[in-house]
Every structure is written in structure tokens, then in C-alpha cells.
Amino acid sequence: MEQKFKKMTQAELEENLDELQYNVTQNGATEPAFRNKYDHEFRKGIYVDITSGEPLFASSDKFDSGCGWPAFTKPIEKELIAEKMDNSYGMRRIEVRAKNTDSHLGHVFTDGPQSTGGLRYCINSASLNFIALEDMDSLGYSEYKKYVK
Prior knowledge:
The structure is a single chain. The protein is of the alpha+beta class. The chain has a single domain, classed as Peptide methionine sulfoxide reductase (Metal Binding Protein, Guanine Nucleotide Exchange Factor, Chain A), CATH 2.170.150. The chain has two helices and nine strands; from the N terminus they run H-H-E-E-E-E-E-E-E-E-E. Strands 3-4-8-7-6-5 form a six-stranded antiparallel beta sheet. A hairpin with a 7-residue loop joins strand 3 and strand 4. The longest helix is centred in the N-terminal third of the chain and has 9 residues. The radius of gyration is 15 Å and the shape is globular. The mean pLDDT is 94. GO terms for molecular function: peptide-methionine (R)-S-oxide reductase activity.
């Protein structure tokens, strides 16, 4: 069976991503806090991997954590995310990557809302594209509408 969401080739990544998007997803960079595309985006919809279009997070799980980056309580499906220990910059934290593309997304912390499990997925806007609920059918994401409440 052919995989529906495929990572762009190296040439496609270089052609389609801007410098920040490329550095975040491919080199593990972090975009500036509070100065990014989706920190204050609260319309209904889904957030997809910018390198493949694969749905990763839903607006229903997004919250304003005050950290300056989009924050989610959980991914759409845990199997879509890979986590690994990150000891960079003298810190000990858990890096979050898109499992199917190995793109860097951000980090997960244990200071999220306790009522939803206590996790805060702090994700770089530069690693995502937002698909508004009203556009999901026309863009081929109808099956993911069940995640948007």
C-alpha cells in the first residue's frame, strides 16, 4: 500500500521551505518565541507536518500556554510522533519529531494542563501548516474532521 503522506525530497525541501522552516525541520533549530505564525491561531482545524502534509495536531487540543509557541495537550495520534532525549544547550528535555518524516517539531514538557494528562507539546510554527476546518474537505482531510471539536 502506498503511503499517503510522503516527505519531500531534499530538492523539494530546499525549493519549498523558507530558511526558517528548513532550519527548524531539518536542523533542529527553534523559531523566535511570540513571533511565529501559529502561537495565536485558535480557529478550528488541524496542524500538519510542513514537509509531508501529514496531520499531527488538532485545534481541539491546542491551548495558550504563554510560552510563545503553539502548545498542544496531545498529538492527533501518538504513533505519528517520535520522542527522543535532547541534552542540548545544557538542558535535559524531550524532543518531538514527526515519526514518518523525522522532521524536528519541538519539545514536550510535563507542565501542561493536569485535566488533559499534564503534557505540553511546544511546537514550532515553522514545522507546521494549518488547515482550517472549512478547508479540510477540499484539501483532502475529511477523515480528520473527527479530531476537531
